[in-house]
Specification:
Shape: elongated
Strand content: 25-35%
Order of helices and strands: EHEHEEEEEEHEHEHEEEEEEEEEH
Largest sheet: 7 strands, mixed
Number of helices: 6
CATH architecture of the largest domain: 3-Layer(bba) Sandwich
Structural class: alpha/beta
CATH class of the largest domain: Alpha Beta
Number of strands: 19
CATH topology of the largest domain: FAD/NAD(P)-binding domain
Length: about 325
């Protein structure tokens, strides 16, 4: 089955074994696992991967440095090669179906009006990074403005790094990045963050991290602030007018799982200092019958490899549930 063969009209939609919302690492890995188990499935993906601004994917064994777009294209080919379907679009609404008082799966309406029905639903929609409201910060996101030492650390080793203290996790970030460069400074910005406790200040001092206590006004680039693909980061202009030069800015975004469409199904979310995510068990079950979640939507800290592994695990458990259901 390929995308062109999939019925687009809503009059008599084919009932799939599994509908996968999201075609990132978790969704595609789950789709390959399920397709190899001869499950009928469709992956619906909006084409906006979280890591799109990054030059490469790192810490992914055997594919180190591969571009995000190349990795996703390869994953789509693998899914369709085993008979799965990948549809471009987004799920606009989803509801549980009932048949004679029993559970009959799910009906999802896409943003272009197509309707899909499936026995099980796997949510792999990822998350949105909500950055602090500092002008100029978002324009460098994924290049000179980063958040994860394991995703980008090697690439910024020995550079001048400025950590913005905008989150409860910011001190932890500074300590980790101090392993990668001797030139790490911490901006204790109480206008955008929680401030610095005495114990945290001692930790930073022990690692040789200089602390500056002032508020950020704007992130500037070397061409005077007009940003384009070639613009290089100049640093952070403080409210006092001083420019703190930096080659790299580290910030802790608030990570918000894309869950709104699915909350009507009873899917529960939780909050931690990093953000909001779907609560699941060790195999990705949400606690709602027939609904699973994997990847960043359920694990805010998961890199690409971990997200893919979670998708594979959830798919294996999901497939077993379908087998037992048919008994």
């Amino acid at each position: 089955m390929n995308q062109n063969q999939y019925p687009e009209a809503s009059r008599n939609p084919e009932t799939l074994d599994v509908l996968i919302a999201g075609g990132g690492a978790a969704g595609l890995a789950a789709a390959v696992t399920l397709a190899r188990s001869r499950r009928s499935l469709a992956v619906v993906d909006g084409g906006q991967p979280r890591n799109a601004p990054a030059e490469g994917v790192h810490a992914l064994l055997g594919r180190e440095g591969i571009s995000p777009s190349e990795l996703l294209a390869a994953g789509r080919r693998e899914v369709t090669g085993y008979g799965g379907v990948v549809l471009d679009g987004e799920i606009a609404a989803v509801r549980r179906l009932e048949d004679g008082g029993g559970d009959a799966g799910f009906e999802a309406t896409l943003n272009d009006g197509r309707v899909l029905t499936a026995r099980q639903l796997l949510i792999a929609t990822g998350l949105i990074d909500e950055l602090p409201p500092i002008p100029g910060l978002a324009e460098h996101w994924g290049r000179s403005v980063i958040h994860c030492p394991y995703c980008h650390g090697w690439e910024v080793r020995d550079r001048s790094i400025l950590v913005l203290g905008t989150s409860a996790n910011s001190v932890h970030q500074a300590l980790l990045f101090s392993q990668l460069s001797a030139d790490v400074r911490f901006l204790a910005d109480t206008a955008h963050g929680p401030g610095l406790e005495a114990g945290q200040a001692r930790q930073l001092a022990a690692r040789g991290v200089e602390v500056i206590t002032e508020a950020a006004a704007v992130v500037e680039s070397e061409n005077g602030g007009s940003l384009n693909d070639e613009a290089r980061l100049a640093g952070v202009r403080l409210v006092s007018g001083e420019l703190l030069p930096a080659e790299v800015i580290v910030v802790a975004p608030r990570m918000l799982a894309r869950t709104e469409v699915f909350e009507g199904l009873g899917v529960k979310t939780e909050e931690n200092p990093m953000g909001r995510f779907i609560s699941v068990d060790a195999a990705g079950w949400t606690g709602v019958p027939g609904v699973w979640a994997a990847g960043n939507v359920a694990d805010l800290s998961a890199q690409v490899g971990a997200a893919g592994a979670a998708g594979t695990l959830a798919a294996a458990r999901l497939n077993a549930e379908l087998v037992m259901e048919r008994l």
